[in-house]
């Protein structure tokens, strides 16, 4: 909690992503220790915050990539290879 408050003071009470991550950690601790009701992150507005390790964008990226590949190969009869790095 202290880290969150320091973060808010440092950012002049702006809704900074790094402060939101600290808030999420604090709320998770409270839920884990049964100090508050279990809630899903979406209802708390804390889903897929920047800097989190488990941001699931791969599924959407692959769906978009598949759509793009099928539309370009059907119109051009060519195959395009795309290389991405993470």
UniProtKB/TrEMBL annotation:
Keyword tags: Cytoplasm, Disulfide bond
PROSITE patterns linked: CHCH
Annotated InterPro entries: COX19 (IPR051383)
Compartment(s) where it occurs, according to its Swiss-Prot or TrEMBL record: Cytoplasm
Region annotated Disordered, chain positions: 57-86
GO cellular component, one term: mitochondrial intermembrane space
GO BP annotation list: mitochondrial respiratory chain complex IV assembly
Residue ranges with Basic and acidic residues bias: 57-68
Low complexity bias (residue ranges): 69-86
Record-stated family: Belongs to the COX19 family.
Function as written in the Swiss-Prot or TrEMBL entry: Required for the assembly of mitochondrial cytochrome c oxidase.
Listed PANTHER family: CYTOCHROME C OXIDASE ASSEMBLY PROTEIN COX19
Name of the protein: Cytochrome c oxidase assembly protein COX19
């Amino acid at each position: 909690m202290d880290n969150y408050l320091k973060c808010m003071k440092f950012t002049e009470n702006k809704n900074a992503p790094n402060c939101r991550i600290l808030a999420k950690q604090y709320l998770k601790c409270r839920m884990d220790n049964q100090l508050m009701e279990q809630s899903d992150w979406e209802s708390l507005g804390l889903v897929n915050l920047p800097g989190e390790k488990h941001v699931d964008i791969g599924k959407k990226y692959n769906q978009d990539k598949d759509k793009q590949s099928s539309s370009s190969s059907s119109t051009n009869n060519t195959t395009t290879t795309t290389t991405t790095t993470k």
